[in-house]
Write a structure and sequence with these properties.
Helices cover 42% and strands 18% of the residues. By secondary structure, it is α/β, with parallel strands linked by helices. It has one domain: Aldolase class I (TIM Barrel). The chain has an eight-stranded parallel beta barrel, surrounded by seven helices.
Amino acid sequence: MSLRAKQVKGLYAIIDTSYAPLEGLEKTASLIIEGGAKILQLRSKGTASGQVLEACRKLRRITLDNGAIFIVNDRVDIAIACGADGVHLGQEDIPLTDARSLLGASAIIGVSTHNTKEAKEAEASGADYISFGPVFPTKTKADAQSPKGLEGLKEIRKSVRLPIVAIGGVTEERLMDVLNSGADGAAIISDILASGDIRLKVSSIVSKIGSL
């Protein structure tokens, strides 16, 4: 396993601008990092590129100052422009091999997968990690596929050696279930962003992971 891959574990916090407005991103990111998160991704669908880049530059500074990894969803160009640690690609985004040639060998590149075929292809193409899901029903992604369940996650674990980040309906309550089913990390969105105290919620999640 590469050094890059080893960094992808535990809480994989995602700021989705459908839950957290762009205007408050710095505060939201700071609270997440203060809570103990070491990986942060920005997902901002349908937002103007200039606005996304500006937001990413702010989040890049926050993550750098705190030794956290910063990943940009979908946008290789913005990841390059803001100096992010890497990018997360969907199945219909730029091919992983092209993203690697643009971002370089040291970048962390993840790929969204929904079945064994996609997971194996991502591994063969040089992904540093994969996300798998949706594991549970989710409202965060409007075009999400049907839930794969914990059994689906277990099957993916048997199929690849890459770190797996479980995504889709993952909450603090379901955290242990996904980690015990083979996931190395858990992508959590709404359970963090919709909580009354983001810092406390993240701290609680991180402490549960640390107890494993």
